[in-house]
Amino acid sequence: MGETFAQKVLAKKAGMDQVVPGQIVTLSPDHLLTHDNTAAIIGKIGNELDKYGVIDPELPIIVLDHVIPAANEKTATNHKKIREFVKKQKIVNFFDIGEGVCHQVVVEKGLAKPGELIVGSDSHTCSYGAVGAFSSGVDRTEAASLMLRGEMWLKVPHSIKMELNGSLSKGVSAKDLILHIIGDVSASGASYKAVEFHGDTEDLTIGDRFTIANMGVEMDGKAATFQVDDRTRQYLRKAGVKDDEYKPIWADDDAKYSSEHEYDLTEIIPGIAAPHKVDNYHTVEELKGLEFHQCFLGTCTNGRYEDLKVAASILDGEMISKRTRLVIAPASRSEMRKALSDGTLDTLIEAGGIVLPPGCGPCLGAHQGVMAPGERTLSTANRNFKGRMGCKEAEIYLASPATVAATAIYGELTDPREVI
Amino acid sequence: MKVWKYGDSINTDMLFPGKYTYTCATPEEIRPHLLEDLDPTFSNNVNRGDLLLVGDNFGCGSSREQPVLGLRDVGIKAIIGRSFARIFYRASINQGLILIECPEAVEAYREGAEVELNVEEGLIRIDKEEFDFPKLPDQILAIRDAGGLLNYTRMKLKEGSP
Fold first, then answer.
1. Which of A201, A233, A264 is the last residue of a domain?
2. CA of B160 to nearest chain A CA: how many angstroms apart?
3. Which residue of A17, A341, B3, B51 sits 20 to 30 Å from the alpha carbon of A261, by its own alpha carbon?
């Protein structure tokens, strides 16, 4: 019987020949990702850290990204505690404010390698499936325990196979595809399951795969992974990872899945997730003309250079509508610099965009771009839950960078295919 | 004992809004905002031993731990649901908050019905009807019985096993 990607990775990490779905295994992840919540995590285990220390200073990856630069005394104090912890425990992989959103940083620094197991105290840790890693979110307490012991249990998940056929049309992006998929399978469609993307994936950039894997958790997937190909190898080489530093793992052709889905990419059109659930899918066409007070371009889902570039190509020579505001948060320093060096960012600013430091920014509503009651944001982020952007009487819609850019021009929902 | 009933896809922002995640960590800080955007009456009226009865995919969304800590600290005896989001489920095991997947019981419940729960026996009684749910695997029971994951980890550290 063939094995799925999840079975193979988890068997390898557990030091076993084979594992089956439903089996509980004990294993040690290759990395543990934490961010601003590191302060709360280490706060739980102060005495133990003094006595035993972090089990391996190379295990944690700590990125300050959620509320940066600090918004108030409390968040500033948290950052300070984390910096002191990093110094004392000699943590190797620490990225202070300004480096970018943790998930983007992990991938672009080459810290997530194909076939590895990475867990993180952030639900979007599933993003590293973009480069063939098995990655998954855990709670803060699990992260605290991992800092001390480096070991955890995992249930081997059943897997879902998603076959992608053909390629996306002009003006349509990976975001439209994943919103369509989540609308199709529902926000709990992959609960306790690992999702594998098969088929014509070679045309998707690493950024596209990142967008899709990132939103795996929005169908409650445990992981969401793409097969490693030449594009992955090339990307990793640029990130300083040599081909012989990892061993890609992929499912067998005769692996057994709990369900299989096929998507014809040529049929995907610009889509949108309406409040307050990510699976509340509509086509842009259906809601055309809906007024938006804020357009948000950025986050780990869609804040990379290629996303900003698409938006700039639509906004080039245009001015955003007086009815709306355009807030931009690049995914990382490095992606921001790419957009800076070729004039992409200049085009966006000239069109009326406001650029924030590379970080999570408005996505979680702690500061920057918080909404007022009765307002509506069109966002490239991954979540539209009620209250997510700091106000429960505001509405969040999710869409692609192209749809957000086109909408910014008119202040109302616009199909990007009409303006490209 | 009161049963608090909620529907499908209740996400972590409804259970504990994201804007408080980096400023509230203790039970006292969490409690006033618990279920704030879902049911503003909850935090002032919940009593120790109360139950939550919920639909599909309860706790979906963020990996934030405050909803779990908050519900445990106000004394929720258990959450009986049709299904739970994965990270929320794991976080609950790690905190010793009891989650029970039993769609049949959720289906059978009507407002005002009498609910009895026996966790050890794996039995829920709703008025006169009985529903059973499967026992958790041993590895997970060991964490629960230690009083949550950190206690379990402390025990292991003391035993000298890394």
1. A264
2. 10
3. A17
